[in-house]
Every structure is written in structure tokens, then in C-alpha cells.
Amino acid sequence: MPETPAPAAVGMAIEEVDTPALLIDLDAFERNLKRMADAIDGSGARLRPHSKTHKCPIVAQRQIEQGAVGVCCQKVGEAEAMVYGGVGDVLISNQIVGAPKLARLAALARQAKVAVCADDAGNVVDLDAAAGVAGVILDVLVEIDVGAARCGVEPGTPSVKLAQEIDRASNLRFAGLQAYQGRSQHIRAYSDRRAAAEAAIALTNETLAELAESGLKCDIIGGAGTGTYQFEAASGVYNELQAGSYIFMDVDYGKNENVDGAPFTDFENSLFVYATVMSRVTEDRAVLDAGLKALSVDAGLPRLWDVPGATFTGASDEHGKLEIDNTVAGGNRVLKLGDKVKVVPGHVDPTVNLHDWYVGIRNGRVECLWPITARGMLR
Amino acid sequence: MPETPAPAAVGMAIEEVDTPALLIDLDAFERNLKRMADAIDGSGARLRPHSKTHKCPIVAQRQIEQGAVGVCCQKVGEAEAMVYGGVGDVLISNQIVGAPKLARLAALARQAKVAVCADDAGNVVDLDAAAGVAGVILDVLVEIDVGAARCGVEPGTPSVKLAQEIDRASNLRFAGLQAYQGRSQHIRAYSDRRAAAEAAIALTNETLAELAESGLKCDIIGGAGTGTYQFEAASGVYNELQAGSYIFMDVDYGKNENVDGAPFTDFENSLFVYATVMSRVTEDRAVLDAGLKALSVDAGLPRLWDVPGATFTGASDEHGKLEIDNTVAGGNRVLKLGDKVKVVPGHVDPTVNLHDWYVGIRNGRVECLWPITARGMLR
Questions:
Q1: B286 membership: H or E segment, kind and range
Q2: Is B78 strand, coil or helix?
Q3: Which H/E stretch holds residue B274?
Q4: Which residues 257-276 of A are in CB contact (within 8 Å) with B?
Q5: Tell me, what DSSP letter sits at residue B49?
Q6: Contact between chains at A378 and B4 (C-beta distance less than 8 A)
């Protein structure tokens, strides 16, 4: 259990939850789980959702109940938290570098199905050595750069060469391709987003053909996020989808557009930071008790949920500043001191990582408290 | 102790520290402590440094050893962590709203010298009631808005009125003025920063005069940050300085200027995020294992420490992207896979809040591991 006390008790009315707190609207969350399962049903692609979004094995179990094959992780510590929380199949969709982490990674592969990505021949040597010490055969995917210009070798020949090195290593098994295009997820216009996804799909497909020529088979061809999952699902190329944010959504994903410029409504907001008005001195300003340490602003400011006339205009360490338009809602004062409001995070993943507890809400009451056990698992 | 394992063991060489980790250069940190103590010595103002920067009672004790009278906190949970860590005198330089927090605040005042701020008459009634239930007399300061347009009543008559309400409450004691000008701290030009501080000082002085006319005395006249401490120290008006970042510094404060446009060198960088090069596929790019969950970017990007030719150009959830100029340092490849580098945080306070441990370094070895016990104490 986390060190910080929980902000609520099961059975409380939502208004009694202490703030700042991270709320899950359980009905909306469950609808999102089902919508994703329905959307990809029959596509031939399975879901391996990213646990970097929620950092909570309880959420992972709910995803697995809806058909997910396991989860993705970014860190060994995150993978440990998932495995120790009962998840039996984890893919670290990232490079793991350095002896202490490699030893933990290999040890974890004795306890669960574990795969990891590589984009460097020297790292493959190190992975092989660590797997040998632990006495395991480790699954390794080649990460290819399909447009994000971050990690990953070039598609095509360089990736085949690295796959062959993995294949030759005594304690490793070549398990497939990691082909995530992070940049495409937040391209607002549908057609542009689709074009970026299609380009990544094409590069992945070409690489698969080259691998097949070399006699190398991919169990996993993984990628996709909440912004592009439908394209990879329909591609016939990818067989695993790594979306994470779909369960909760955020302001940033809310700015994406669907076909014809319609709002992106595939999923709904189910995650909120609950905050209290802690200062209300002037008519046009209210200050919340949630700032940079409760809400990440890296992808833009959070947005108030269902408070007409109030706009979140700035965050400092422990304060969120609201501008109040008193002409809205009949010119009444919109908020008073002590009022509690829901705030939609600007960017869900780093916001979740600021909290130790989810407070699950249904029908206005606290149904559950879920510890965010991989919070802060940086290593 | 935090839930996450420590990234190091005492006695290790720095190169063995696992990453991402938060390093303190102990020599530089101790020089900063002494520089602040020396700088304000004889000014008549005492130091009450802000613990929202470090969130660690061990750091607070080091500040108190150098003459600090206690600490500031922003949250009741932060104050609890400080008191339970041996700090006997805390000022919550913030408003505390809502029954559960008020009960904890009043209970804490039975265990240590505790003061809090108010900017609302209804909140004063609630503070009085909570203090009554706990059987304590609670010290309450009036926060005045001296230019930050965040919390605080207007200086002058409105603040005197609120001070009188505190003075009349059976279980409260009017303890002074909170007059922090947050906006002025990061004004780059010395003369503009000084002007903003002087304006705040003048408003505070006028309010003090009005309070004196009403027969109300201020024990504490508090404010100032790392950007303006010298002006408040010299003012003859403020008697407590609330600087926090001076112990560690960050990229943002590093952009401030001293007189004549000279760099702000009152304090030196003593805090770093230690990170590993986890991907090095192209000549002009390296990727670190520290992104948004290890380094806050709300006030601008972090900066590499002592890696010529490498620039931190972007952060995603778990990755920090570096651009490498290979013409620097003789055209050699500047960084290789597995290399560890120091990164100066863009903004120190929210960066510290992402970590559970300080790794104290002296002469290239780990001297101490300090738990960041108020990390995540949002409530």
C-alpha cells in the first residue's frame, strides 16, 4: 500500500472525498473497456494495453477480463508491479539498459511471460548474458522507428540484421517487431492522423517481408495508441495494439478529430482530479487546491468538468487558477469557497503518476480504492 | 520509507547509481545553505525556507542547523511529514479548507508550533471551530495579495478587517502577514524584479501601518523567494524569508539576471536527475531514460550538465530526447549507449515530487540516501 493515506473511504458520498484526489467514474471506465473490445473484435489484432497510463494491476486485470492478452510496460519496475499484481504476460515496449535492470528483467522472466525491445546490437549481447545468468530464454522484439524519431532502428535491412543477432543469441528468442508511432497519436485532423498511421503500417509491412525472406517469424507485431488504434487494427499487419489512454481519456486526446472534423468520441472521460476551491477573494477568480503536483500540464492545461463559466487558466506548484465569467449561468457566482469540482487532466499518464490512489465512484458514492502500485516506478 | 526501492546503496561510486535518480551534490548543497545564511545575516530577517521544494525533514534539519527558524509548508500532509520528522515550527503559507484537513491541522498544533494563512472570513470561522475542538490556540496569518493575483485579500483595509476577525476568534491568535509575490521571482531583469519586489514591500508596509493603527501586532511578516530574497531581507519590513529553491537551483532560476545583466550566481546547481542513454541509433540523437515522470517541464526543458554538444530537446512520458552536435568536442560521438549523465531540472519543486529518494553524493560516492517523505502529500 502507498505511504500516503487514501483520500476517501469506501461508501462515502463523492462530496466527502478529500482533495486533490484522482477519481474514476467506474461506469464510464467500464464503457471504455467494452468499446475498445468491441471496436477491435474480429480485426485479428489483440489488445495489449499500456500500463504506463494506469500503473495499477487492478486496472490491468479489468482489461484482461475484457480480452486483453497482457499489458505493455515501459520500465522494469512497472513490469514487476504488474507481475506481482497477478498479470502473467508483460511486454516491456522499451529498451532496458544497465546491469542492475537487466538482472531484474531476466529474473522476472522466471515468474511470468516477459518480452522486451532492443535497438542496439551491444544491448542484445547484454540481454543474452543476463538471460543466461538467470537461466531463462528471453523474448526480444526489434523496435523499429516508424516515424517518431525516438528509439528504434531503421525499418528494413537494419532491423533484419538486429533480428538475426537476437535469433543467434543462445538465451534469447526473436519475438517480433515493436512499431509504435508516438507522433501520430495526437495529429488532430483525421486524414492526417490516418496518413501518419498508414505510413507506419507500410514501413512495418516492408520490414515483415524482409524478415520473412530471412526466415524470421514475428509472434508479436505491436504498436498503436488511442489516437490511431483503428488504423492498425484494420491493417492486417499489426496483431497487437498498445493503446493506453482509451480507458480514461484526457484534454489532449479530446482535441483529436474524427472523420469530417467531428469530435473524437470513441471513448469518454472517466478520470478526473477532484479539487476544492481554496480561495475566492475576487468575483472573477477562484483558486483550486490542485496545481502542478496534482495535474501535469506538459500537454496543455486541464479543463473543468461541468462548471459553466469557469476556465482553468494557470497552474503553480499547489494552486490551480480559475477565471470566472459571472455572466454565465445567470450571473450568479459560479463557485464558492469549499466547493469541490472535477478537473479533466491535460495529459493522463504523467497526471496518474502524481497520485497514489484511485477513488472509484459509482452512483455518487465511493465503491473502491485502488492503489497505484507502479506510481514512481521509474527504474 | 518509500515504497519504491532506493536507486543506490551508501558507498557506491556515482556511476553505479541506477537511473533515473535524484542526486544531491552535497558540497554544493552545503555551500548554498551557508550562502543564504551569510547573505541575510544581520538583515533582521530570519529564514523560514519552503519545504515544498525539498519535501524532506532531513533537508529541513540542515536548514535549521544553519539558522532557519522552521519551515513553510503548502499542505497539511507536508506539515505532518515535517513535524513527524522532527521540525518543531511550521507555517502553512497557504489556505486550508474543508473539515478533514482543518481537524488534522488543529491536531498538529498540539504537537508543534503551527501557523496557517487565511483570506476568507468564513474560513476563519471554520479554523476557530477546528481549533476549539482540538483544544488549541491556532496562529493565523492574513495573506495579502501583493501582486501575484492568486490567493490573498487586498492589502490595507480588507486585510485589517480580516485580521480583526482572527483577533476576535476565541481559539485563534492573529500572528501576522503572509505577503509572497510569486510572480516577481522569475522576472529576468534585475531592475524589473527589484521593482516588483519593492511594490510588494510597499503594499506590505502600508498594511502594517494600518494594522498598527488598529492595535494589531504582527509576529511574522513573511514572504520572498529565491528570486527576490535580497530585497525583502533589506527592506526592514519583512522579518521572515520563505525562499525554497536556493538549496538546489534549476534551469528556470538560472535564467534570472543579477545587476548589470550578469548571471544570477548567488547559488549553484546542487540537484540533478541522473539518467542513462538508453538508445543511440543515429549520430545526431540520443535518448535518455528520464522523461516527464522524472523531470517536470512546466517551466521549460531541463538542461544537460557538462555534456558539450548535447542538448535536451524534448520529453515524452519516459524518454528524454537529446540532439547531438558531433562537431563539438572534436567531432567524436559525444555519448554512447549506457553512459550516465546529469540533468538540471527545469523546475525543481515538481521534479522533486516525482522522486522518492535523494542520493547524496560527495567525492564521487554515495554518502547518504534521504527519503522524500512528503512526496505526494497533496492533501
A1: strand B285-288
A2: helix
A3: strand B271-279
A4: 276
A5: -
A6: yes
